[in-house]
Write a structure and sequence with these properties.
- With 375 residues, the chain is an alpha+beta fold.
- It has 3 domains: 85 residues, Rossmann fold; 61 residues, Dna Ligase, domain 1 (2-Layer Sandwich); 186 residues, ATP-grasp fold, B domain (D-amino Acid Aminotransferase, Chain A, domain 1).
- The chain is 29% helix and 27% strand.
- The chain contains 12 helices and 17 strands.
- The strands form 3 sheets. Strands 9, 10, 11, 12, 13, 14, 15, 16 and 17 form a 9-stranded antiparallel sheet that branches. It has a 4-stranded parallel sheet with strand order 3-2-1-4, with helices on both faces.
- Helix 1 crosses helix 10.
- The longest helix is centred in the middle third of the chain and has 18 residues.
- It is globular and about 60 Å long.
- Its EC number is 6.3.4.18.
- Keywords: ATP-binding, Ligase, Nucleotide-binding, Purine biosynthesis.
- Homodimer.
- This is N5-carboxyaminoimidazole ribonucleotide synthase.
């Protein structure tokens, strides 16, 4: 399919996946006058609630994907756990400007590490682990502490095991039942940062401001923007992101998660081939959101030069926070409250987020720290 197509307002954008990223993508598209069709196994999904057409089917259901193709002028996806073979097949039947290869790379840590290395960016020392013999041998080279990660399917700390010595190998080896793994050296980082970038079909690249990410129990808790880092770090992070985008021939939005060490060295941790949790702040804090920029890219529109309008902090609302957040809405006029339309508020399930624009970041962070909702 040609990558020169320009999708006009009034056309239909098909989205594979019905989660909150698809919902916010759909809402951004609707601002520009597009219609939305969604393929998602669960009825009344977050994206399905705001779509013009909801196709209830598994992501690899070819009949459903053909139906999506028949009603859509362009197709994108909202997360990386799309079936690669089905997506590759779909690219021959419909207009999917992002293609399928980026999905293949980013849903497999082994392929992702190799791609990052080939792009010329630094990653933590790692080894591919396929059996117990590999693990015993590579522990000697990688050292301790180190992290064993499943090559596929892990997120929010799932599919990972921290090894602090050889005694942990027996327990860690259970991850291999899910397939090959990657053993990574532990990076003694000072901060976790991320760059969200969007690349158009003509190769133009726009980066959103670098965010500083605070995790609690391996789940993103806060993103602080701009990140509290030096100008040199910002320049280096954006340069690394650009190398990756160029190497992958990116179309659309890609998030690059990075570790920053005390001496300002940056290691790329992982990629997400879509809008990202750490970029939600852009809805209120920037002149264009990560979702609006993504829609422009896949529709062949020129990208907007992204600007931070005011410093901001984004806080995730997990299942255990929902009641407290709702109870405080009347007392928090500065909270931009987003809920994703998920029916069941499970512990640690991402139910929404809050973005606060602030002229005094230290004061805002302290107010959030002492707030009973997140204790």
């Amino acid at each position: 399919m040609s990558l020169s197509k320009v999708i006009q307002p009034g056309s239909t954008i098909g989205i594979i996946g019905g989660g909150q990223l698809g919902r916010m993508m759909a809402l951004a598209a609707k601002h520009a006058g597009f219609k939305i069709a969604v393929v998602e196994p669960s009825p009344y999904s977050p994206a399905g609630q705001v779509a013009d057409e909801e196709i209830i089917a598994p992501y690899d259901d070819k009949d459903a994907l053909l139906k999506l193709a028949s009603v859509s002028d362009v197709i994108t996806y909202e997360f990386e756990n799309v079936d690669y073979e089905a997506l590759k097949w779909l690219t021959e039947k419909a207009y999917v400007p992002q293609g399928a290869e980026l999905i293949k790379i980013t849903q497999d840590r082994i392929l992702e590490k190799q791609a990052l290395t080939d792009a010329g960016v630094e990653v933590a020392p790692y080894a591919v682990i396929r059996n117990e013999e590999d693990l015993n041998r590579e522990m000697e080279h990688i050292g301790f502490p180190s992290v064993l990660k499943t090559s596929r399917g892990g997120y929010d700390g799932k599919g990972q095991f921290v090894l602090r010595g050889t005694k942990d190998a027996k327990e860690a080896i259970s991850l291999l039942k899910n397939g090959p793994c990657v053993l990574e050296a532990w990076v003694p980082f000072e901060k976790e940062i991320s760059v969200i970038m969007t690349r158009g079909m003509n190769g133009d690249l726009e980066c959103f401001p670098v965010g500083e990410n605070i995790h609690v129990n391996n789940i993103l808790h806060e993103t602080i923007v701009p990140a509290r880092v030096s100008e040199n770090v910002v320049e280096d992070a954006e340069q690394l992101a650009g190398k990756i985008a160029e190497h992958l021939n990116l179309v659309g939005t890609l998030a690059v998660e990075m570790f920053l060490t005390k001496d300002e060295k940056i290691y790329v941790n992982e990629l997400a081939p879509r809008p990202h949790n750490s970029g939600h702040y852009s809805i209120e804090a920037c002149n264009i959101s990560q979702f609006g920029q993504h829609i422009r890219a896949v529709c062949g529109w020129p990208l907007m030069k992204s600007r931070l309008l005011e410093q901001a902090v984004m806080v995730n609302v997990l299942g255990q926070h929902v009641e407290g957040v709702i109870g405080q809405i009347q007392q928090q006029p500065d909270w931009n409250v987003h809920f994703y339309g998920k029916e069941e508020a499970k512990v640690n399930r991402k139910m929404g987020h809050i973005t606060i624009l602030t002229a005094d970041m230290d004061k805002t962070l302290e107010e959030l720290r002492v707030n009973e909702v997140w204790k």
